[in-house]
Design goal:
The structure holds two protein chains of two kinds.
Chain A lengths: L3 E5 L6 E5 L9 H17 L2 H31 L3 H36 L10 H34 L5 H34 L1
Chain B lengths: L1 H6 L13 H22 L7 H22 L6 H28 L4 H28 L9
The chains are: A mainly alpha, B mainly alpha.
């Protein structure tokens, strides 16, 4: 994954050393499989601690990573040189391909089961409306993540694997992250408000 | 559409125009997500099926329209599309399977379960289609080994 070849970062950029990209880091797959098995076992066993663990840990990481990358890493990345940006993206984005879908699955599946187990989805429960609001927030984030960002992420990685990556294509695809960062940020803050309300009602 | 694409074979990848396959896929995904939210908001009660059924039907129609437009492309990196589609399909079938398992485990049965399964099938096809199309559209036709 990290064997370095000398390839061009963009048509107009000088030749720079850059890591060879593996789009899906295969070494991470057993960890993903273990997490999925753990989530399924937690649901099947209706195991309170495990469900809470999956939901809280998954949700905290998902929200924190989303906000940190969108608000801190993204703007810094935008000010780096093209080769530096390319090198960072080549190492960072393959990890996100595995990490984010796993965290999302872990958070949502465990959260739904936890809400049912605790009776929070029952019509008369004061948390019902908050949880439906959280479904809507998650729905918006899911459409953006799965329909806009994940495809752009994969396409950028394929472009960067080429012997002569097209800088215009990469810039065009990366713009999607900038345009959606605001929406994702607002949705994540809404999630924090909703979840802290649910936990304290 | 095909002749339009053929005429643009020499255009740079960033400016090459394609039919709105990804847009239709995103529309289909959005509708199925809304339908899923409606269904989930009624659990553990039996949800009314009219609106989710209509959403699933329109979502399926959009997905079919995307597949139809995609099938008419001749200047397209099909090998790359199928490689990405295959692996993404595997990933999202697992995701959809976990969601389906949660509904079955929580005693969703009969028509609501059938509708949830239809929505999950659309979801599991939508996402790989969008990912594979986006990855393949920027590959130079005919597909190279890059």
């Amino acid at each position: 994954m990290t064997d370095v070849g000398r390839i061009q970062a963009a048509p107009s950029a000088p030749v720079v050393a850059r890591p060879r990209i593996q789009i899906v880091p295969l070494r991470g797959l057993p960890i993903v499989a273990a997490v999925v098995v753990f989530v399924i076992a937690s649901i099947a066993g209706n195991w309170l601690w495990a469900l809470t663990f999956c939901h809280v840990v998954g949700g905290a990481l998902w929200t924190a990573i989303d906000l940190f990358v969108g608000l801190i890493v993204g703007p810094i990345l935008g000010r780096l040189s093209v080769p530096a940006r390319a090198e960072f993206a080549a190492r960072f984005m393959p990890k996100m391909v595995l990490l984010m879908p796993t965290l999302v699955l872990m958070t949502l599946a465990a959260g739904f089961q936890l809400a049912l187990r605790e009776g929070n989805l029952a019509p008369g429960n004061p948390n019902h409306a908050w949880l439906v609001a959280s479904f809507c927030v998650v729905g918006v984030m899911a459409v953006i993540a799965l329909g806009v960002l994940e495809p752009a992420n994969i396409a950028v990685l394929f472009e960067m694997r080429k012997t002569q990556p097209d800088g215009t294509v990469i810039a065009q695809l990366m713009r999607r992250f900038v345009y959606t960062a605001g929406i994702t940020g607002v949705m994540q803050v809404a999630t924090l408000i909703i979840m802290t309300r649910v936990a304290t009602q | 559409m095909s002749s339009e694409l053929a005429a643009m074979t020499g255009a740079p990848a960033a400016t090459r125009r394609f039919p709105p396959v990804a847009e239709l896929g995103i529309g289909s995904l959005a509708l199925v997500v809304i339908g899923g939210i409606l269904m989930a908001s009624y659990v553990p009660r039996r949800p009314p099926l009219g609106v989710p059924l209509a959403l699933a039907a329109v979502s399926a129609a959009l997905l079919l329209a995307a597949v139809f437009l995609l099938s008419r492309l001749d200047q397209f990196a099909w090998p790359r599309f199928f490689v990405v589609f295959r692996w993404a399909l595997l990933a999202y079938v697992i995701s959809a399977g976990v969601i389906g398992f949660a509904f079955i485990y929580d005693h969703t049965r009969g028509a609501p379960l059938a509708l949830v399964i239809v929505m999950l099938v659309i979801f599991a096809l939508d996402v790989p289609l969008i990912i594979a199309f986006t990855a393949a559209r920027y590959s130079s036709p005919p597909h190279s080994a890059d």
